[in-house]
Amino acid sequence: AVVSTQSTGELERERGTYVLRCPTTVFSCQSSLSAPTMLLCLWMMEKFKPLITDRMVHDTGVSAVLKLSDTEWTLDLRDDGTIKNGADETADIVLDMNNETFLKLVDGSTTTAAAYMSGQLKLEGNIMQAMKLSGLFKSMQGAIKDAS
Predict the structure, then answer these.
(1) Which residues, 6+ apart, have CB-to-CB distance to 22 below 8 Å?
(2) Residue 21, class by beta-carbon neighbours within 10 Å (0-12 exposed, 13-18 middle, 19+ buried)?
(3) What are phi and psi of 103, to 5 degrees?
(4) Cα separation of 143 and 63, whole Å?
(5) Mean pLDDT, 10 residues at a time, the chain of 148 residues
(6) What gap in Å lies between CA 111 and CA 96, rounded to an integer?
(7) Which of 15, 88, 98, 125 would give a disulfide with 74, using CB separation of 3.0 to 4.6 Å?
(8) What pLDDT score does 133 carry?
(9) Torsion-angle region of 108 (φ positive above 0: left; ψ -120 to 50: alpha; else: beta)
(10) What residues contact 11, with CB distance under 8 A and at least 6 apart?
């Protein structure tokens, strides 16, 4: 079966493996939990890596773990300026949300403050450090619009 994922490509399932085929990249994983959304998140994380500039690292100075429905990512805007799969135990903050809330943050239909206040985003750590990530989410919105 092929599932349309808006402008990001096509998602196929073959023998328990999900494959997202985009114009320039192919992502695949084995998962049974929200695989279409998870692969969309994987594609977006790859798209966002170039957004992390030296200036953003200097201005933000925060390392955060994003705990999504099926995966965890570390946004290192403190030391390395990287986005990588998996949780770094030394991160300053942890943002725990489902995939749908993450997609809403990225597409601009909600903000970190609104998601936090409504309980859609749970925070471990300093809320002021979490608010510093709003600039990254705004950059992400631009990257998604450019990819559309």
Answers:
(1) 8, 9, 43
(2) middle
(3) -60, -35
(4) 21
(5) 41 55 52 58 75 86 90 87 88 93 85 92 91 80 66
(6) 14
(7) 88
(8) 83
(9) left
(10) 2, 3, 4, 5, 18, 19, 20, 21, 35, 36, 39
Pairing of strands 93-96, 62-67: parallel
Residue that is written with structure tokens 């929200």 in the block:
34
The tokens describing 103, both together, are: 């997609």
| C-alpha closest to that of 123 among 100, 87, 95 | 95
Ramachandran class of 101: left when φ > 0, alpha when ψ lies in -120 to 50, beta otherwise: alpha
The CB-based long-range contact list for 51-56 (8 Å cut-off, 24+ gap) reads: 51/136, 51/139, 51/140, 51/143, 52/77, 52/81, 52/82, 52/83, 52/136, 53/81, 54/81, 56/81, 56/135, 56/136, 56/139
Instruction: Report d(CA 4, CA 9) in Å as an integer.
Output: 7
